[in-house]
Design goal:
Elements (H helix, E strand, L loop, with lengths): L3 E4 L3 H7 L6 E4 L6 E2 L5 E4 L10 E4 L8 H5 L3 E2 L1 H4 L6 E6 L4 H12 L4 E5 L14 E5 L2 H6 L7 E4 L7 H4 L2 H14 L5 E5 L10 E5 L2 H8 L11 H17 L4 H5 L9 E4 L5 E4 L6 H10 L5 E5 L9 H7 L4 E5 L4 H10 L4 E3 L3 H9 L7 E4 L12 H13 L2
Parallel strand pairs: 1-2, 1-5, 2-4, 5-6, 7-9, 7-10, 8-9, 10-11, 11-12, 14-18, 15-16, 15-18, 16-17
Antiparallel strand pairs: 3-4, 13-14
Helix pairs in contact: 4-9, 8-9, 11-12, 14-15
Length: 399
């Protein structure tokens, strides 16, 4: 019987274990070996012996620097485990918008028997192999470890700095995102940003400059699509996939798609003033996209959290000419204040998120926008970006 080692005790590996009865988990958080409620053995990571393992499958979040990765001799990804799965595979990736794009593609293709999973929340082991299409949100972590599996269609959104400490640098991050192209074959299709059109691949490349260029190539009328800003790009890419596969453009169907909470979620206070919950904007590109959406109005912008040491210069270069005021929160609030001073942007340092809402409340006019778009992760002060967004909405609701 093949000896299978699962690295990390999480959703991905737990789902795989249901298909591999003899699997053993190795986890950094485990201090003493035990059997879980399903009878699987969970051992400390230090107990892993490569000479007693025939196959290792890693949780995607485990970084390349982890000792388990260095010890492994037969390491594959979750995707590689399902290389021979029958459904046609569509992978969606990019820095921002991949979750929404994945959901939109599923919304458009559900009538064709598709199911969605991957980084969006459903492990591949939980997806039906009888489905006609697998639509997979694919992270750079997963693709870093994937060496055999590849998509039939790869839809890539633009790339900007993200997860650099995990990958080791921007080029390594880009390489992970482009890795599927190096494996794809001549019958496959890749829809990718123009910046990467020269990559060596056997797949058919369709490159685009922006959402308008992409829409033009696929005969899509952007004026008939209800979404704006970053969501317009997501919608056009989803429609491009539908057009590629089934030669159809369905405006009514894409316009019936409902966005998830926490991404440019608009709400009104008792004075009918507009507040926007964009807490899911955890990197620079997402915040830039949100500011672009509302740049026709004066913006009271809440920034801050755990920026993971990313260079924020690009963000402030963008903000310096905009009609706005920054309210800084989180562990990097002082760093943000220093940058605001450097770029001559009006700002105020706030005690916390509730304090920022209170300060904005005193100055927000009817024709202005209050925007929470932090450009940073939330775990410095919150359990998740969702908790940050919910607290923002609660504070606005009390005004």
């Amino acid at each position: 019987m093949r000896r299978v080692s699962l690295f990390g005790y999480g959703a991905t590996t737990k789902a795989l274990a249901e298909l591999i009865p003899n699997a053993v988990f190795y986890d950094d958080k485990c201090k003493k070996a035990y059997r879980d409620e399903n009878g699987f053995m969970v051992k400390p990571a230090a107990d892993f012996d490569a000479n007693k393992s025939d196959l290792e499958i890693t949780s995607p979040g485990i970084p390349p620097s982890n000792p388990l990765i260095h010890k492994a001799k037969h390491l594959i990804s979750e995707y590689d485990f399902f290389t021979k799965a029958k459904p046609l595979k569509i992978w969606i990736s990019g820095t921002n918008g991949k979750t929404t794009t994945t959901q939109m593609i599923q919304h458009l293709l559900k009538d064709k028997g598709s199911v969605a999973g991957g980084n969006i929340g459903t492990p591949l082991a939980k997806l039906s192999q009888d489905a006609s299409i697998w639509i997979l949100e694919s992270s750079s972590f997963t693709m870093h470890y994937t060496n055999k599996d590849y998509p039939d269609i790869y839809a890539l959104l633009p790339l900007s700095p993200d997860h650099l400490s995990w990958h080791g640098g921007m080029q390594e991050y880009i390489d992970a995102k482009l890795k599927p192209l190096t494996i794809m074959s001549s019958g496959d299709i890749a829809i990718i940003p123009q910046a990467y059109k020269e990559i060596k691949t056997d797949a058919k490349i369709i490159s685009y400059k922006d959402e308008n260029d992409l829409a033009s190539q696929f005969g899509i009328d952007v004026n008939q699509v209800k979404f704006k800003g970053a969501f317009l790009a997501d919608a056009i890419l989803a429609m491009a996939v539908d057009k590629t596969m089934f030669e159809r453009i369905d405006y009514d169907k894409i316009n019936s798609f409902t966005l998830d909470p926490h991404r440019q979620e608009e709400l009104r206070d008792t004075q009918n003033r507009l507040w926007v919950n964009d807490t899911k904007a955890t990197n620079l590109d997402a915040t830039i996209a949100a500011v672009k959406c509302y740049s026709d109005s004066y913006i009271h912008l809440i920034l801050g959290g755990d920026d993971k040491g990313v260079d924020l210069g690009e963000l402030f270069e963008f903000l310096k000419d905009k009609d706005l005021k920054i309210y800084t929160i989180g562990s990097n609030k002082e760093r943000l204040a220093t940058l605001a001073q450097k770029y001559n942007i009006d700002f105020v340092v706030c005690k916390n998120l509730a304090n920022a809402v209170m300060k904005i409340d005193k100055h927000l006019k009817q024709d202005e926008i209050a925007l929470l778009s932090p450009a940073a992760a939330s775990l410095d002060e919150f359990s998740s970006y969702a908790q940050r967004g919910n607290e923002f909405k609660e504070a606005v609701g009390k005004l």
